[in-house]
Amino acid sequence: NVIMNVPNTRGGMILKKLLLVFLMAIFSLTLLGTEYAVRITKDGEDVPEEFWITREEIEQAFGATVANASSQGITLDPYFDSYYIPSEIGLKTMIIPYIVDQKLIDFYAEENNLLPSDEEVEAETDTMMEMYTSNPGLIEQIETIYGSLETFKDEMRSYVYAALKVELVQNSVAPLTEEALAVYFEEFRTEIKNQYETIRARHILVTDESTATELMSRIESGEITFGEAALHYSIDSGTAANGGELGSLQRGQTVPEFEEAILTAPIGKLYGPVKSEFGFHLIIVEERTEINSLADMVSSPRYNDFVSGYQNDSYNRWLERYISENNFD
Questions:
Q1: First to last CA, the chain
Q2: CA distance 116 to 114
Q3: Residue 88 host element (H or E)
Q4: Residue 234: helix, strand or coil by DSSP?
Q5: Rg of the Cα trace of the chain?
Q6: 205 with 236: CB under 8 angstroms?
Q7: Which pLDDT score is estimated for 137?
Q8: Angle at 243 between CA 241 and CA 245, to 5 degrees
Q9: Residues contacting 74, CB < 8 A, separation 6+
Q10: Each residue of 106-119: pLDDT tens digit?
């Protein structure tokens, strides 16, 4: 759309910087043989070996990621990064810090007794097995892939254990309470408003103010409808055919003059002309969703997205603090 203000991507540059940092951070423990690839320390002292990273773990994670990429038609070059896609070597350097984070989360869980009980794991595993084995067709597929239902159940049990452990840690470091959500909302009020407030608007774009003023008079007098005017006179070819409909807009998606107009224009009223670098706009704001409090957020259709954002953001910020405060390396 001609009024959209889309920033240039810096993905390739950021990726190359990240890869450089990760490459500098990786080392091999040759004195310990080839089993371990990464040793983790706390305040300069080794943590137990169960929280180190083996080469096998890296290869498994790498293999799974490559297989997933291949299923989407993505092929990685063995050595050279492209603008958006890392090389195989680059992918490994990105995977290792992720595995390190998982190991530190495991360390925290054990330190703080945040491990699911055998009974909890078994109950959840049985529930999931019932769901999968209720379909005879699925049983056949499972046996083909895993060899037997028992092998599949062992895999399921491992998955359930890991999922329950992450849930316990997340509930510990990012509790899902009204008080915690309120604190988070106030801390990131501006960012949340920018992300979740939406405006539905239509516009007609013309080259000069006199044409815009004339069209405004004709629309207000009932001589022509807004949709007809958009179809016949708007130079925005992307929206003219559908009556100037712009869909759902968020803050930061349009040029400043247009954004200010759609944030202040009365709902349902013809507004303008508004000058921008593209020309002169006539605007009708059809709906504006404002988020000024946690209560507004709760009633928003995107409340679940907000909760997920709170949990992920709080979780990641906790992990950064945990690493820094304990001097993990």
A1: 47
A2: 7
A3: helix 88-111
A4: coil
A5: 27
A6: yes
A7: 85
A8: 105
A9: 85
A10: 999 999 999 999 99
The arithmetic mean of pLDDT across residues 206-220, rounded, is 96
The candidate with the shortest Cα–Cα distance to 16, out of 80, 98, 99, 96, is 80
Per-residue pLDDT at 13 exceeds 60: no
- Return the structure tokens found at 233: 């006179």
Structure-token pair, residue 153: 């159940």
Alpha-carbon torsion, ordered 257, 262, 268, 270, to 10 deg: 0
Q: pLDDT tens, 132-158?
A: 988 888 898 899 888 999 999 999 999
Residues in Cβ contact with 188 at an 8 Å cutoff, skipping those fewer than 6 apart: 313
Tens digits of residue pLDDT in 16-62? 444 444 443 443 344 444 588 899 999 999 999 999 999 999 998 99
Alpha carbon distance 87, 78 (integer Å): 6
- ∠ CA(67), CA(69), CA(73), 5° rounding? 110
The Cα 265–Cα 7 span in angstroms is: 26
Task: Indicate whether this model's pTM tops 0.90.
Answer: no
Query: Residues 6 or more apart from 304 whose CB is under 8 A from it?
Result: none
